[in-house]
């Protein structure tokens, strides 16, 4: 639903942010998405739920903008 671009995201892409993930890495620290469907064994989420990426530094630019 949303994946903002913040200064920390640009710093991560530049390689100057204190947290440096191993390449290949996806930019983006923050975002929100919506669950569209779940498997039969999933009980914690339902379609329509809003979710945030976890663990931190998951990489929201690819996951939310291109999925």
Structure description:
A two-stranded antiparallel sheet has the order 1-2. The relative contact order is 0.28. It is mainly alpha-helical and 67 residues long. It has two helices and two strands, in the order αββα. It is 21% helix and 6% strand. The protein has a domain of 43 residues.
Q: Indicate the radius of gyration in whole angstroms.
A: 14 Å
- The number of helical segments is 2
Low-confidence stretches: 63-67
Tell me roughly what share of residues is in helical segments. 10-25%
Secondary-structure element string: HEEH
Question: Beta-sheet strand percentage?
Answer: 5-15%
- Helix/strand-derived category reads mainly alpha
Q: Number of DSSP strands?
A: 2
> Strand order within the widest sheet?
1-2
- Apparent shape: elongated
Q: N-to-C terminal Cα separation, in Å?
A: 11 Å
Largest sheet: 2 strands, antiparallel
Give the overall pLDDT as a whole number. Answer: 77
Domain Alcohol dehydrogenase-like N-terminal: 2-52
Keywords: NADP, Oxidoreductase
GO molecular function: oxidoreductase activity
Pfam families: ADH_N
Question: What does this entry show, briefly?
Answer:
This protein is mainly alpha-helical and 67 residues long. The chain has helices spanning 7-14, 60-65; strands spanning 33-34, 50-51.
Notable characteristics:
67 residues; mainly alpha; NADP
Write the layout of secondary structure elements.
Blueprint: H1 7-14, E1 33-34, E2 50-51, H2 60-65
Antiparallel strand pairs: 1-2
């Amino acid at each position: 639903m949303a994946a903002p671009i913040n200064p920390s995201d640009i710093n991560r892409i530049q390689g100057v942010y204190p947290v440096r993930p191993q390449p290949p890495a996806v930019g983006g620290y923050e975002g929100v998405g919506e669950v569209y469907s779940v498997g039969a064994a999933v009980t914690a989420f339902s379609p329509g739920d809003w979710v945030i990426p976890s663990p931190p530094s998951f990489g929201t630019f690819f996951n939310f903008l291109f999925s």
